[in-house]
Each structure stands twice: as structure tokens, then as C-alpha cells.
Specification:
The complex is a heterodimer. Chain A is mostly helical. Helices cover 54% and strands 0% of the residues of chain A. Chain A is globular, with a radius of gyration of 13 Å. In chain B, 23% of the residues lie in helices and 26% in strands. In chain B, strand 13, helix 4 and strand 14 form a beta-alpha-beta unit. The chains are: A mainly alpha, B alpha/beta.
Chain lengths: 105, 410
């Protein structure tokens, strides 16, 4: 983790599960920092997912499920697992500054 | 004459038809219901067929028996819904029905073809589902002669209807193998995309302990990518591999294909639904009950029942030019059979997760909540009788639509 990341993350408020408390406080720099903290270097492909998640949240007030991301973007399930290892919907949502995707009831 | 058209004559559609036949002035209203299948299946009973507890004849009856004579019934596939034109086309003779009000109750269905390999040659040989009557029967034949090995139960993805049914299957299997003195020859593995045994934290903890006590292995966060039938293994996207001798699958659940054809659904063909009024946010004369909608609660017959009164009241209000009331709270109520003639009852809604306590039920209860008891087992077994004789007939049941906190330990 770089010092820059540390400095940025200091300013952000997270809940107990590591999701941002206020999605409106999110910036692309914060996304870079959260990703860096998880050992992920964001690429264009990551941004396809993050931008989609942000857009969905604005429209539906809810972060998208894994299936929704893979159906509505050109990122398939295999790829998204490589991009965001260990729970892609959760991790993508975290980096996009959104809450925990509900998806499952 | 005005027309109320109901699509789907399963649990939800049948209840709406029965109730509306009593409430609407039939000089003024025509009630039509459409379904492709002449048989009504008691789906909760599918769970018991693999273990020989129920036979297929216990779970199927003619649909017509449950629909009031005043209701017109068409047995046909629904070709397309055109909500902008207020009309529906059937496949049978390309019949077109124009409606004033539409209730969609087309349910949810399994899609094993969504998972690569699942249907490659081993389907219903050593890979089975029990969410269809055919699957449940095929599995009962297999289990009768199985010598043991590794049984894996996999949930493909959420949401699924009756999210407790996979756990119940496992508990019943554990009991079944015990009874046959072969439990030591069977390894039971439960693989789920969830982080634990169930979707809600308190219940998940308690059910997880039960799995452990029964010696059942839990593989959580497991998102299946493919089935390799040559090596008899399932693989997850994060490259875990689990061998099986017998694979019982809960395939991807999706809303009806007609919802997709009509471009009315989300990516799983579930219809966007106002979660409190049960009205479509897009078409004000379209209402959704049961598994067909995207309301964030369990997809279960009990939930469809709790939706019924709210949906009917709101439709009647709308007919009078009044605003619908946001009264549906996501109430769900499930008996979970846990084997050895015991069961657990959970009761929850959008805001309150399942809690321990007592469920006071005049005449029947009390049932212990979130705790094993024999009464809960018999509650579940009694549910079949209640379903056929009370619930489908729209009779008042000893359950309230809105959840109550009485008896719960918050
Ligand atoms: C194994 C299992 C166990 C379960 N256990 C329980 C339980 O213990 N408790 C509980 O409360 N619930 C349980 N459920 C869930 C319960 O059965 C369903 O939630 C309930 O039946 C949903 O009702 P519905 O009206 O939404 O859909 P359904 O009852 O499934 O009815 C949908 C109807 O629509 C018709 N249809 C669909 N598409 C078309 C088309 N294009 N053209 C014509 N007709 C069409 C179908 O033929 C069907 O009759 C269980 C389900 C399963 C599979």
C-alpha cells in the first residue's frame, strides 16, 4: 500500500464490512486507493465494471448483482473473477464506493 | 364488460382468481385465467419424493378443481404480453385477450442449461434436480439403489425459490441414510454461493451449527462455473474443484420465458415490482404476485399468500380511483424440516431477520422459532393439507399478512 493510498483512505468513512458509508463521497481517486489496499491495480477493464456499478446505483439505488454486471457489460464471469478476486460483486461494489449488493434473499 | 386477466394458475394465480371471483361484481367483470399446464403441483411436496415419503400422486391435482366456476380458464402457453396495448396473446389459436387489469403469477422455473456441463450426458443419471416433479421422481429411483459415496448438493446462484429447500433436502438425506444404515458410507457436501448456510445471519449461524452436528461439510462462497462429468467434479470460478458421485443441483432459477419475450423482466426475467404495493412501477394496471416479481423477499408459497390480501385490496382501491397502500412488508414464514421428525420455523420480513422465540398460532401453535422441535415437523407435514384445502381456496388462514413481533426475542 502506498502512502498516497493511506492518506486518501484516512479521509473516507467505512462501515464494519469495509463498504463506504456515503456513496456520494466517492471519487475515482478513492476507488484507486481502495483497490490498491486490496492489492488490485485498476485497468480499463476494472473501470468498465466500476462505471457500470456506479451508473446502476444512480438509476436503481442498489449495486448490481454479478449476473447483472455480466449480462449488461462485455465482462464475462470468468474475467470478473480475475479482475476482482474473491467475491467479485462484493469487491467491485466496495471499490465503486457502494454498499453490499443484496442480490440474495 | 371489463376484464381481469390472470396469467399463471399456480399458487398465486389460483388464490387471486378465487378471491376476486368473490369480490368483483360478475355482471360487470369477466375473470380469465391462463396456464399451460392442466395439473396443479404442490411444489413443497417435491422435497419428500426422493426419499419415498410422498409419492407423485400426493403432489398433483387438476387445476380446474381449485378454480371457481365463474372464472374462465384457458389452457395454453402465453405467447406474449403487450402491456402498452393492454393485451396478451396466447399460443393456442393465437387468441388475443384484451384486459383492463392484469395479474402476473407466472412463477419461477429452473434452468440447468445455464451451467456448462450440467446437462452433458449425466443429467438424471447421477445428476438430479428436485425442483421439478420429474427430477424428484428420477432421484427417488436413483436413491433406492444407491450404494453410497459422495453426495454434493449445489446451489447454482441466488435467488432461488424456497431458499430453505436445499437445506431441508440435506437434512432429510442425512436422516434417510441413517435409517438405511448407510450414513457411514455417504459423505454429504453442501456447496453454496452464499457466505454461510442461509441468507440471514442469525438463522445462518443456527442452521450452520446443525450442519456441523450432522457431519455435513459446508463449502461456502462457491460459485459454480462448470460441471465436468468425465471426472465427476464441479468447478467454481475461483478454481475450487469438488468431486461427486451423486450431484443434486438447484439450477439457476428464472422468471418465465414469456416475461423475457415481452421485455418486462430483469436479467433473470423477474418483473420489477413495487415491493410494498405489488404494483408494476411502469404500468399501473399490472400487478405481480408470487415468484414472478423481483420483490426482495423469499420466493415461497407462504409469501404469495401474505401478498394476496395486499394485492387484492390495492387492485380494488385502484379500481375506485384510490392510491394503492404500501402494506406488504416482505413477510415470509417457512417450516424447515431438519430430519428425525423434527423441524424449525422461521418468520421474517424485509426489515426483521428470523429471530428465536415462539410463534403463537391460535388453534395450532405455539411453534418454536429458529429451534428444532417435533411440532414444527408436523407443522410442515400439515402444510400440504392446509395448502390444498385452505390456502388455494383463499380461505382465511391462521396467519397474518403482516409480520408480528409477538413472541419473538429481538
Ligand atoms: C422443492 C420445492 C420446495 C418448496 N417448499 C416450499 C415450502 O415449504 N413452503 C413454501 O411456502 N413454498 C415452498 N416452495 C415454493 C412455492 O412452491 C412457490 O413459491 C409458489 O408455488 C409460487 O407460486 P407462484 O404462483 O408464484 O408460481 P407457481 O405456483 O409456480 O405458478 C406459476 C404458473 O405459471 C404457469 N406459467 C408460467 N409461464 C407460463 C406461460 N408462458 N404460459 C402459460 N402458463 C405459464 C406455470 O405453468 C405455473 O402453473 C417450494 C418450491 C419447491 C420447488
Amino acid at each position: 500500500m502506498s502512502t498516497q493510498t493511506e492518506i486518501i483512505l484516512e479521509t473516507v468513512e467505512f462501515d464494519d464490512d469495509g463498504f463506504m458509508v456515503d456513496p456520494n463521497a466517492w471519487t475515482p481517486e478513492i476507488a484507486e486507493a481502495i483497490a490498491d489496499d486490496q492489492g488490485i491495480q485498476l485497468t480499463d477493464r476494472h473501470w468498465v465494471v466500476i462505471n457500470f456499478a456506479r451508473k446502476e446505483f444512480e438509476e436503481n439505488d442498489e449495486p448490481p448483482t454479478l449476473r447483472r454486471i455480466t449480462k449488461r457489460t462485455d465482462v464475462n464471469t470468468k474475467e470478473i473473477y480475475q479482475l476482482f478476486p474473491g467475491g467479485p460483486a462484493k469487491n467491485a461494489s466496495r471499490i465503486a464506493g457502494l454498499g453490499k449488493p443484496t442480490g440474495c434473499i | 364488460m371489463k376484464t381481469l386477466l390472470i396469467l399463471g394458475a399456480g399458487t398465486g394465480g389460483t388464490m387471486v382468481a378465487t378471491k376476486m371471483a368473490h369480490l368483483l361484481d360478475l355482471q360487470e367483470w369477466r375473470i380469465i385465467i391462463v396456464d399451460r399446464d392442466e395439473s396443479h403441483y404442490y411444489q413443497p411436496g417435491f422435497l419428500f419424493i426422493p426419499f419415498g415419503i410422498y409419492s407423485p400422486s400426493d403432489v398433483v391435482k387438476p387445476k380446474r378443481n381449485f378454480l371457481p366456476p365463474q372464472v374462465e380458464v384457458f389452457f395454453s402457453d402465453i405467447e406474449i404480453i403487450e402491456p402498452d396495448q393492454n393485451r396478451v396473446q396466447l399460443r393456442y389459436e393465437k387468441k388475443v385477450i384484451n384486459y383492463d387489469y392484469l395479474v402476473i403469477a407466472t412463477g419461477s422455473h429452473i434452468h440447468p442449461e445455464e451451467t456448462p456441463g450440467l446437462m452433458d450426458g449425466a443429467w438424471r443419471k447421477n445428476i438430479f434436480d428436485f425442483y421439478t416433479v420429474e427430477g424428484a421422481i428420477a432421484l427417488s429411483r436413483f436413491l433406492k439403489f444407491w450404494k453410497g459415496g459422495r453426495m454434493v448438493l449445489n446451489i447454482t446462484e441466488m435467488p432461488i425459490k424456497c431458499p430453505v429447500a436445499p437445506l431441508e433436502f440435506i437434512f432429510l438425506a442425512d436422516w434417510f441414510f441413517h435409517e438405511r444404515s448407510m450414513r457411514d458410507d455417504v459423505e454429504i457436501v453442501f456447496t453454496t454461493p452464499l457466505a454461510g448456510a442461509f441468507t440471514k445471519p442469525r438463522a445462518s449461524g443456527i442452521l450452520g451449527n446443525l450442519l456441523e452436528e450432522k457431519g455435513i461439510l459446508l463449502e461456502s462462497d462457491f460459485n459454480i462455473m462448470e460441471v465436468d462429468t468425465t471426472n465427476q467434479a464441479i468447478r467454481s470460478y475461483d478454481e475450487r474443484e469438488i468431486d461427486y458421485d451423486l450431484l443434486v443441483t438447484i439450477p439457476t432459477n428464472m422468471g418465465a420465458e414469456v416475461i423475457d419475450r415481452s421485455d418486462m423482466g430483469d436479467e433473470l426475467n423477474f418483473i420489477p415490482t413495487d415491493k410494498h404495493t405489488l404494483q408494476s412501477p411502469k404500468w399501473e394496471n399490472v400487478w405481480i404476485i408470487g415468484d414472478a416479481g423481483n420483490t426482495p423477499t423469499s420466493k415461497a408459497g407462504s409469501v404469495a399468500h401474505f401478498m394476496l390480501d395486499v394485492l387484492v385490496d390495492n387492485m380494488l382501491r385502484h379500481m375506485e380511483g384510490l392510491e394503492p397502500l404500501p402494506k406488504f412488508d416482505g413477510h415470509a414464514n417457512c417450516f424447515i424440516v431438519s430430519g428425525f421428525e423434527k423441524g424449525i420455523l422461521i418468520d421474517f420480513n424485509y426489515d426483521v431477520e428470523p429471530l428465536p422465540g415462539k410463534y403463537p398460532l391460535p388453534g395450532f401453535g405455539p411453534f418454536s422459532l429458529l429451534k428444532e422441535s417435533a411440532v414444527n415437523h408436523w407443522g410442515k407435514m400439515m402444510f400440504r393439507w392446509i395448502y390444498w384445502n385452505m390456502m388455494l381456496k383463499g380461505e382465511d388462514m391462521p396467519f397474518e399478512s403482516q409480520m408480528s413481533m409477538a413472541g419473538k426475542w429481538a
